[in-house]
Amino acid sequence: MRRLVLFMHVSVDGFVGGPNGEMDWIHVDEDMFEYAGQQTDNADTALYGRRTFEMMQGYWPTAADLPNATKHDIQHSQWYSSVEKLVVSRTMQNEFKNVTMLRENIADEVAKRKQESGKNIVIFGSPSAAHLLMQYNLIDDYWLFINPVILGGGIPLFKDVQERLKLKLVWNKTFDSQVVGLHYEKE
């Protein structure tokens, strides 16, 4: 059985985007990229909401070709180009290679994908998709990167959660950027 793994940057006060969805408060460093790279090696499918997919699609397909591409840019660009992408969108047209649009019965479709053979399915950001999948208790792993900032408002990490979910902390680390990484598994 495949696992559905969420990667999300979050503020100390629990927001994943500012009041207008801005993400200029997010800190990243090379050490964090190493951990993310290890996890993408364990995944063959990425799940995105429409906005996050548009952002990813605008950068990652050609990131490895840039003159100042980092090791992370090259590795993640290659991974991004090779994996299947599931995009939650009712409006976007599918004109992309390795992309499947999830338009209806999204939770059922994701639950079916989890039953298939293969590697993990990862969600990078995509708060609206994550909120939907949390409602159906489909996320197995929460990789949360707590950034040293209080936003005071914005897009909450947890929204419309219907019932208590017990988690087990399996990893934590404070990065040089002062971001605290936490990996929780569903109990």
Task: Provide key terms for this protein.
two-stranded antiparallel sheet, Dihydrofolate Reductase, subunit A, 10 strands, 5 helices, 187 residues, alpha/beta
What does this protein look like?
- The protein is of the alpha/beta class.
- It has one domain: Dihydrofolate Reductase, subunit A (3-Layer(aba) Sandwich).
- It is 27% helix and 30% strand.
- It contains five helices and ten strands; from the N terminus they run E-E-H-E-H-H-E-E-H-E-H-E-E-E-E.
- The protein has an eight-stranded mixed beta sheet, with helices on both faces.
- A hairpin with a 5-residue loop joins strand 9 and strand 10.
- Helix 1 runs parallel beside helix 3.
- The longest helix has 12 residues.
- The two termini are 16 Å apart.
- The model has no long low-confidence stretch (mean pLDDT 93).
Strand and helix layout:
Blueprint: E1 4-11, E2 15-17, H1 30-41, E3 43-49, H2 50-57, H3 71-82, E4 84-88, E5 99-102, H4 106-115, E6 120-124, H5 127-135, E7 141-147, E8 155-156, E9 167-174, E10 180-186
Parallel strand pairs: 1-6, 1-7, 3-4, 3-6, 4-5
Antiparallel strand pairs: 2-8, 7-10, 9-10
Helix pairs in contact: 1-3
Provide the CATH topology.
Dihydrofolate Reductase, subunit A
- In this structure, how is the largest beta sheet organized? 8 strands, mixed
Order of helices and strands: EEHEHHEEHEHEEEE
Strand order of the largest sheet: 5-4-3-6-1-7-10-9
CATH superfamily: Dihydrofolate Reductase, subunit A
Average pLDDT, rounded to a whole number, is 93
